[in-house]
Amino acid sequence: MKAWQFNGTHKPFTRVEIDEPTAGPGKVVVDVKAAGLCHSDVGILEDEKWLAFTKVPIVPGHETAGVISEVGEGVTEWQVGDRVAVWPMLGPFGYGVNGGWEARAEAETEQLVRIPEGLSFEKAAAATDAGMTSAGAVFGKGEVKAGMKVGIIGFGGLGQIGARLAHLEGAEVYVAEVKEDVWETAKAQGAVKVAKSITEFKDDNLDVIIDFAGFGTTTNEAIQTVKFQGKVVLVGMGRLEATIDTNPMILGQVTLVGSNGGSKDDIAMVMKWMASGELEPTITMIDFEEIADGVKMLEEGKVTGRLVAKVAD
């Protein structure tokens, strides 16, 4: 069957033929219907640090949704025909084991999350990483509650979901986004203020700032902006290194924490909000054959919202 393959840093993803997987004991095979792309897929091509936990060669794709086509020995709670999303934290999916950039993917039953009735595969795929990671950062590490003032850096694939989830929870949301063409969308999704830099909200006394960009300068600006004894949550991996101004961090007693991924419950919650219509993330669709081009689009900043590749029916 056809798959996209990662062959090492500074080498392009290639379209290859690989053996079809079979469902081992306690596992299933999922016919992939949609698979997402994100900036980490750009990162593994550019930065050797990703090789610490990425096998070579490997089929990437950590945002996967599809239909179970085969169940292995001992699997009783799932059956052929079930619509599922794949929790990527085990494996990790697309890094340590083959992911969803292939026609059929093997997954552990512990990774499966049932897709709600009426929810598209494209949105379900976006929920497995953009949704899960956003929820994990906002409600997990950020501990956001109703009434809090929350800064969101980056209104892209993750930030738009994080901002909306915080708003739905009853928080007051402030968005920093360099692309002015999405400012009105951010306001429509609940942001009370939008600006190019988080530093423009210095006087708004933000309780928590969640950096979905992670370009180093963005994290440093968050530390300079958050309120006294506030918290900064770093999610984005735009750069794997940052220079931090320790003076405002120490004097302001700022807590800086990293957030990576989330739980199956986070995915289920996000899909529930999506199915209800309250959460409508912007998704840019491409064909599965265009994945390499899609990664280039991400690298050049030409993607609005979340990028998802759909398998033709």
CATH architecture of the largest domain: Alpha-Beta Complex
Which CATH C-level class of the largest domain is it? Alpha Beta
- How is the quaternary structure best described? single chain
Helix content: 25-40%
State the secondary-structure class.
alpha/beta
Catalytic activity: a secondary alcohol + NAD(+) = a ketone + NADH + H(+); a primary alcohol + NAD(+) = an aldehyde + NADH + H(+)
Protein name: alcohol dehydrogenase
Family: Belongs to the zinc-containing alcohol dehydrogenase family.
Keywords: Metal-binding, Oxidoreductase, Zinc
Polypeptide structure, described:
This protein has 313 residues and is of the alpha/beta class. The protein folds into 2 domains: 2-127 and 262-310, Quinone Oxidoreductase, Chain A, domain 1 (Alpha-Beta Complex); 143-258, Rossmann fold, CATH 3.40.50. It has 8 helices and 15 strands. The strands form 3 sheets. Strands 3, 4, 5, 6, 7, 14 and 15 form a 7-stranded mixed beta sheet that branches. β8, α3 (159-168) and β9 (172-176) form a beta-alpha-beta unit. The protein is globular, with a radius of gyration of 19 Å. 49% of the residues are buried. Its cofactor is Zn(2+). It comes from Gulosibacter macacae. One of its GO terms (cellular component) is cytoplasm. Belongs to the zinc-containing alcohol dehydrogenase family.
